TrEMBL record:
One of its GO terms (cellular component) is cytosolic large ribosomal subunit. InterPro entries: Ribo_uL30_ferredoxin-like_sf, Ribosomal_uL30_bac-type, Ribosomal_uL30_ferredoxin-like. Signal peptide: none annotated. Coiled coil: none annotated. The keyword ATP-binding does not apply. The gene is rpmD. It comes from Hymenobacter polaris. This is Large ribosomal subunit protein uL30. Part of the 50S ribosomal subunit.
């Protein structure tokens, strides 16, 4: 299966609680932190809901 790499490029401060929890669930804790995930429907849905905070690259 394909993998994606997500990087937190904008802060989750002053965002709705739901978006903060989504960023945490993706494994991103600090600004510029990077996490790698298998591409599946649940991960892609989480990425889509906070795409304005992330930078996504395919591996």
């Amino acid at each position: 299966m394909a993998q994606i790499q997500v990087k937190l490029v904008r802060s989750a401060i002053d965002r709705p609680e739901r978006q903060k929890r989504t960023v945490q669930a993706l494994g991103l804790r600090k600004l510029n932190s990077v996490a790698t995930h298998e591409t599946n429907a649940s991960i892609l849905g989480m990425v889509a809901s906070v795409k304005h905070l992330l930078e996504v690259t395919e591996l």
